[in-house]
Every structure is written in structure tokens, then in C-alpha cells.
Design a protein that fits this description.
This protein is an alpha/beta fold and about 425 residues long. Among the domains are: about 130 residues, Methylthiotransferase, N-terminal domain (Rossmann fold); about 110 residues, Transcription Regulator spoIIAA (2-Layer Sandwich); about 55 residues, Nucleic acid-binding proteins (OB fold (Dihydrolipoamide Acetyltransferase, E2P), Beta Barrel), CATH 2.40.50. Helices cover about 35% and strands about 25% of the residues. The chain contains 13 helices and 21 strands. The strands form six sheets. It has a six-stranded parallel beta sheet with strand order 2-1-3-4-5-6, sandwiched between helices. Strands 17-18-19-21-20 form a five-stranded mixed beta barrel. Strands 7-10-13 form a three-stranded parallel beta sheet, with helices on both faces. The structure holds S-adenosyl-L-homocysteine, iron/sulfur cluster and FE3-S4 cluster (F3S). The site of FE3-S4 cluster has 14 residues, from α1, α3 and α6.
């Protein structure tokens, strides 16, 4: 038998890309490739890219520049570009960087083995009729007790700043029976927590199944202990999903619900289709169902036309909610989006607003972590800690927790009492 070929994958961007990278590794595994940790060691390098902000996109080109000496020394090295930049730029990537051998979009990576073998075109950014999931091998490469499961892809929302509807296409939900089968399979392989993924995961509609129905059916799988989902849109937080947060114990008390801005004028210009007040009312209903839920969000500062008053309204909304954490970004104009036509704000304004917003979020994050001290929560051990006798895992509320537990094993779900909080993690002792 010939020696296995080695594949190095670098993943940028969101969890959907993390999931896709795993599936691409498996697809290539069926053609004899095994994963390796360095590009130097590899026969093939695959860059799974993100197009969401300019910085993310440009990373691809700086990484490709760095691969040039390697390709010169090893002309047989295959270099592939996958993901959202691949979808957005296609052939242009090879024109700009001729060292790239193939370009594959997020909907066609099941064809990757044939592309590598030279039996399919080297650039494939179609949105094909067939479902890539029907053509992918079963998931074997799993490590650890947690897994992602993509249930929905694409977005029909067309926020004025965002490339996702163009790079990932229209909203498509995977059939529920397939998802239940995939989930059971994951659980048989030792997975105890599944995070359901979608660009708009709460817009999930598999036939007449809503996301809430999917969550409830998944919760019936023995051995699956925890369910999460991300990313949600405020307008798709339907009653049945909110109710599930109140009465489905396996659905964890954590929700990422991006709002982007607290100013109605800016929300309108962003085409978010809801007001700050409507968002706050959704939050109120979620908290009524599950009072201890930890909420996180995404914010964009310095969207075109944003005034000091608009920015102040965003800070007010943040104060009104009290977040456990948030991702915040300076607005980045993306080619082809409506907002890119509008004049941008000065960089200093964007920098100052970002700093102010992040300082407020950090305060809130610390307050939420501090409030956990003394409480009892569940922790799923994901790895052994750096200190002797220490285990590391996530709490129900998705806080990183360090637990003193010399007898602990990866994959155990334990009860702990939180004893301390630092900026990014909690300390705890095991009680059950
Ligand atoms: N579907 C999710 C988010 C996907 S993109 C949602 O609707 O919330 C992840 C985050 O990137 C967004 O929430 C937004 O905060 C940020 N983002 C998207 N486009 C951006 C842009 N052009 N500039 C800056 N941040 C952006
Ligand atoms: Fe982008 Fe808006 Fe769709 Fe989220 S909802 S992926 S921000 S267009
Ligand atoms: Fe980036 Fe594409 Fe995800 S643009 S954030 S990798 S959907």
C-alpha cells in the first residue's frame, strides 16, 4: 500500500467553517489523505476562508504569499482555497495567486476528491441541485465529547452590510430524519453535546419541523446530554423555541442573539427589520422562560451614517440587556453589498466607538461571571487542564471552567460549585 498523503487545513471564520473543514477532511480521508498539523509536512494545503470583513479576506492572500517558498521547494504540493472567499472570488483567486491549484465553494466540497484527482474542474463555485451531504462520507474523525451539526445553511435576510447571502446562498434546511441519524451516530461515537449550526439557525424549517421541534426530538436521544444552537436572528425567535428554553432541560441556558445596533435609524439602514424595542421585548420573553440564561450578541460600530446619538443608543441597549459576552466589529465595507455604496466614517471615530463599546461589554462580562460564584452548574469535561489534577470544560452557560478534579475524565458531565471568576474563566470544585 502506498503511504498516506497528508492534508493540512487552516480554518478561518465561523463555526460553519469549522464543521465544513471537518467534513472536507473526511471526504479527503476517503481518498487516502490523513490530517497533519503543519503546512511544511503536507502534500496538500487547504485554506477554508471567511469573507465577512476585509481583514478576514485579506488574510487568505497573506497566507498564500507565505506558502510560496514552500510551493517552490515542493512543486507537487497542492494548494486549495475553500469557503466564502472561494465562493465570492472564484477564478479571480487563481489569477491573482497562480500557485493556487483549486477553488471550491461551500456547497460543492463533496467534489473535492475528484477535483484533486483532476477528474473534475479545478474551480467549482456552483450552488448545485444535489445536496452535498448526500455525497459525504460518514463522520469518523471526531475528537472529544462536543460536536457541531449543520442543520441549516444560507441566509435570505440581506442585511445591508453582509456578504453571507451571496457566499452561502439562500436558506436551506436539512431534512430532520437525516439530522436525527447524524446526531445518533455522533452520540454512538461518544458525543454528549451537540451545537446545531446555521447562518440563521432559528429559521430552520425541515418540512413542518421548526428548530424547537428538532431540539425536542434530539433531546430524546439517550446519551445526548446538551443541546445548543447558533446563530439566531431576533425576528425568528418564535414562541415554541422560547418555550423550549423554559421546559427542555437539555437545551442549555445560553443564547447568542446578535442585534448589531441599538439605534432604530441604523437598524433600519442595516435592513435588520426590527427595532431596539422589539429586540428588548424578545429578550424579556426569553428571560421570562429561562431567568438564568446568559445572552451574548454581535455589534457593528461606525456603520455608514452612524451618529454619536446612534452609538449612545447602542450603549443604552447594552446596558438594558446585560450581556455575558459579545463580539464587536468596526464596520467593513464589503464588495457587492448595498452599504458599501455609502460614505464611511473616519477611522478614529470607529476606533473610539469600538473601544467604548468593548469596555462596557468587558464590565458586563465580568459582572455575569462574578454572579456565577457560589452557584452550582453542570460542566462537561473537554480536556485535561494545565495544572495537575485539573479538568477543563464548559458550564451550562458556556463559561470556560477549571475544575480541581484529579479523578476527572474527558467526556464526563459533572456538577460543580463555582468558587471564583477571572476575566475569561471560572474556577470550581466538583460536587457530583
Ligand atoms: N447570521 C448572523 C451573523 C453572521 S456574520 C446574524 O445575523 O447575526 C457574524 C457577524 O459579523 C455579524 O453578526 C456582524 O456583527 C459581523 N459582520 C457581518 N458583516 C460585517 C461587516 N461588513 N462589517 C463588520 N462586521 C460585520
Ligand atoms: Fe448576514 Fe444578516 Fe444574514 Fe446574519 S442575518 S448572515 S448578518 S445577512
Ligand atoms: Fe465567514 Fe462565511 Fe462564516 S463569510 S463568518 S465563513 S459564513
Amino acid at each position: 500500500m502506498s503511504e498516506a498523503k497528508k492534508l493540512f487545513i487552516k480554518t478561518y471564520g465561523c463555526q460553519m467553517n469549522v464543521y465544513d473543514s471537518e467534513r472536507m477532511a473526511e471526504a479527503m480521508g476517503a481518498s487516502g489523505y490523513v490530517l497533519t498539523d503543519t503546512a511544511e509536512d503536507a502534500d496538500m494545503v487547504l485554506l477554508n476562508t471567511c469573507h465577512i470583513r476585509e481583514k478576514a479576506s485579506e488574510k487568505l492572500y497573506s497566507d498564500l504569499g507565505r506558502l510560496r517558498p514552500l510551493k517552490n521547494a515542493k512543486p507537487d504540493l497542492k494548494i486549495g482555497v475553500a469557503g466564502c472567499v472561494a465562493q465570492a472570488e472564484g477564478q479571480e483567486i487563481i489569477r491573482r495567486m497562480p500557485l493556487v491549484d483549486l477553488v471550491v465553494g461551500p456547497q460543492t466540497y463533496h467534489r473535492l476528491p475528484e477535483m484533486v484527482a483532476g477528474t473534475a474542474p479545478a474551480v467549482d463555485t456552483e450552488f448545485p441541485l444535489e445536496d452535498k451531504f448526500d455525497h459525504l462520507p460518514k463522520r469518523k474523525a471526531l475528537r472529544g465529547p462536543t460536536a457541531f451539526l449543520t442543520v441549516q445553511e444560507g441566509c435570505d435576510k440581506f442585511c445591508a452590510f453582509c456578504v453571507v447571502p451571496y457566499t452561502r446562498g439562500a436558506e436551506v434546511s436539512r431534512p430532520p430524519e437525516r439530522l436525527l441519524t447524524e446526531a445518533r451516530d455522533l452520540v454512538e461515537r461518544g458525543v454528549r453535546e451537540i451545537t446545531l449550526l446555521g447562518q440563521n439557525v432559528n429559521a430552520y424549517h425541515g418540512g413542518d419541523w421548526t428548530l424547537a421541534k428538532l431540539v425536542r426530538e434530539l433531546a430524546r436521544i439517550d446519551g445526548l446530554e446538551r443541546i445548543r444552537y447558533t446563530t439566531s436572528h431576533p425576528n425568528d425567535m418564535e414562541d415554541d423555541l422560547i418555550a423550549a428554553h423554559g421546559d427542555e432541560p437539555k437545551l442549555m441556558p445560553y443564547l447568542h442573539l446578535p442585534v448589531q445596533s441599538g439605534s432604530d435609524r441604523i437598524l433600519k439602514a442595516m435592513n435588520r427589520k426590527h427595532t431596539a424595542e422589539q429586540y428588548l421585548r424578545v429578550i424579556e420573553r426569553i428571560r421570562a422562560a429561562r431567568p438564568d440564561i446568559v445572552l451574548t450578541s454581535d455589534f457593528i460600530v461606525a456603520f455608514p451614517g452612524e451618529t454619536d446619538a446612534d452609538h449612545a443608543a447602542t450603549l443604552d441597549l447594552i446596558r438594558a440587556v446585560g450581556y455575558g459576552a459579545a463580539f464587536s466589529f468596526k464596520y467593513s465595507a464589503r464588495p457587492g453589498t448595498p452599504a458599501a455604496e455609502k460614505p464611511e466614517l473616519p477611522a478614529e471615530v470607529a476606533d473610539a466607538r469600538l473601544q467604548e463599546l468593548q469596555a462596557l461589554i468587558t464590565q458586563q462580562q465580568q459582572a455575569v461571571q462574578q454572579a456565577m460564584v457560589g452557584r452550582e452548574v453542570g460542566v462537561l469535561y473537554e480536556k485535561v487542564g494545565r495544572l495537575p489534577g485539573q479538568m477543563v470544560g464548559k458550564s451550562d452557560h458556556l463559561h470556560a471552567v477549571h475544575v480541581d478534579d484529579p479523578a476527572g475524565r474527558v467526556g464526563e458531565l459533572v456538577r460543580v460549585r463555582v468558587t471564583g471568576a477571572s476575566t475569561n474563566s471560572l474556577a470550581a470544585v466538583r460536587i457530583g
